[in-house]
Amino acid sequence: MSTLTKYITIFFVSMVPLIELRGAVPIGTGMGLPWTTTLIVSIIGNCLPIPFILLFVKAILKWMRGCKIALFNKVSNWLYEKADKNRPKIERYAAWGLFLFVAIPLPGTGAWTGALVASLFDMNKLKATVSIFGGVIGAGIIMTIVSQFGAQIVNFFI
Fold it and tell me: Which is deepest, 53, 72, 81, 130, by most CB within 10 Å?
């Protein structure tokens, strides 16, 4: 596999919901790519969908709520109910909470979910974007350190 193909793979993996940068950085490390460019490509790929999610997800969820397909209705209603249940906690911490939520590299806490949360709570799009981008950078740094440390351990035993 050529180096360009590896970077394209990392770019697209970092755009996939739930996998995002948290999966792309270790994959890039496993492919033997330099950590600096892997991190940069992963950050760009992970951040690219965010403005589109912030702009369009609320309209999509409203459409799903009124849709005749039961699954769409269920998913949309579940998201709105979960948002309403956690509204006081989320609104209290707003931008900083969103940043931390995205920066902690756990499953389901990435940029996609952060953008969804920001949209559901009608957060200021500029503040949400800055918080999410900052969180992605933080998560990227954490994942790069963990991946590099893990690679050193593996190399030690091989």
Answer: 53
Cα–Cα distance, 68 to 78 (Å, whole number): 16
Q: Give the chain's largest Cα–Cα span.
A: 57
User: Could you report the per-residue pLDDT of 108-149, keeping only the tens digit for each?
Assistant: 889 999 999 899 888 999 999 999 999 999 999 999 999 988
- The answer to whether the CB of 131 falls within 8 A of the CB of 103 is no
CA distances from 76 to 18, 58, 70, 82, 126 (A): 18, 10, 10, 10, 24
Instruction: Report DSSP letters for the chain, one per residue.
Output: --HHHHHHHHHHHTTSTTTHHHHHHHHHHHTT--HHHHHHHHHHHHHTTHHHHHHHHHHHHHHHHH-S-HHHHHHHHHHHHHHHHHHHHHHHHHHHHHHHHHHS--TT-SHHHHHHHHHHTT--HHHHHHHHHHHHHHHHHHHHHHHHHHHHHHHHH-
The separation between CA 122 and the C-alpha centre of its own chain, rounded to angstroms, equals 18
